[in-house]
Amino acid sequence: MRFVDVAAESANPLIPHTAELVVGAIAFTLLFLVLRSKVVPMFEKAFAARTEAIQGGMERAEKAQLEAQNALVQYNDQLSKAREEAQTLREEARVQGVAIIDELRTKAQEEATRITASAHASIEAERQQAITSLRNEVGSLAIQLASKIVGEALDDQARQSRIVDRFLDDLEKSK
């Protein structure tokens, strides 16, 4: 019978011995328990830390991107305000320039009017002075001429003035 058992045992090499099965099962169970209690928690902790780091990095990146977008919006707002302020300042400067030009024109016109009026007054004064001087000269010449024509002296001042005035009036009427 033994021959049959040996023959039966040697007949199927794929079926292990019962002792090997028991030792293998115990070793597998011990290895499984050690891995489950010691190694798996370390792997889970590492995976959790890595997941957390990735999540934190993504959150930080999203936060940084949001801050960058906010900064860009704020920068664009400030730039827009600066452009508006620059435009306002240019417009104010243009208006002030026009006002200054108008004011200078007005002052120049007033100065020209004043100078013209002063020149007219000066000319009129000189004209009156020339007329007076001419009257005196013409009067004096007329009296001398009349004295020579009449043959008598015309020394009376009142008479001289009347004669000169009459002569000049006659001259003005004849014009």
Automatic annotation (TrEMBL):
InterPro entries: ATP_synth_B-like_membr_sf (IPR028987), ATP_synth_b/b'su_bac/chlpt (IPR002146), ATP_synth_F0_bsu_bac (IPR005864), ATP_synthase_B_chain (IPR050059). Gene3D superfamilies: F1F0 ATP synthase subunit B, membrane domain. It is a single-pass membrane protein. GO terms for molecular function: proton-transporting ATPase activity, rotational mechanism. Keywords: ATP synthesis, Cell membrane, CF(0), Coiled coil, Hydrogen ion transport, Ion transport, Membrane, Transmembrane, Transmembrane helix, Transport. Residues 58-96 form a coiled coil. The chain crosses the membrane at residues 14-35. The keyword Transmembrane helix applies. The keyword Calcium does not apply. It is found in: Endomembrane system; Membrane. One of its GO terms (cellular component) is proton-transporting ATP synthase complex. Its main location: membrane. GO terms for biological process: proton motive force-driven ATP synthesis. It holds the Pfam family ATP-synt_B. PANTHER family: ATP SYNTHASE SUBUNIT B (PTHR33445:SF1), ATP SYNTHASE SUBUNIT B', CHLOROPLASTIC (PTHR33445). Belongs to the ATPase B chain family. F(1)F(0) ATP synthase produces ATP from ADP in the presence of a proton or sodium gradient. F-type ATPases consist of two structural domains, F(1) containing the extramembraneous catalytic core and F(0) containing the membrane proton channel, linked together by a central stalk and a peripheral stalk. During catalysis, ATP synthesis in the catalytic domain of F(1) is coupled via a rotary mechanism of the central stalk subunits to proton translocation. This is Unannotated protein. It comes from freshwater metagenome.
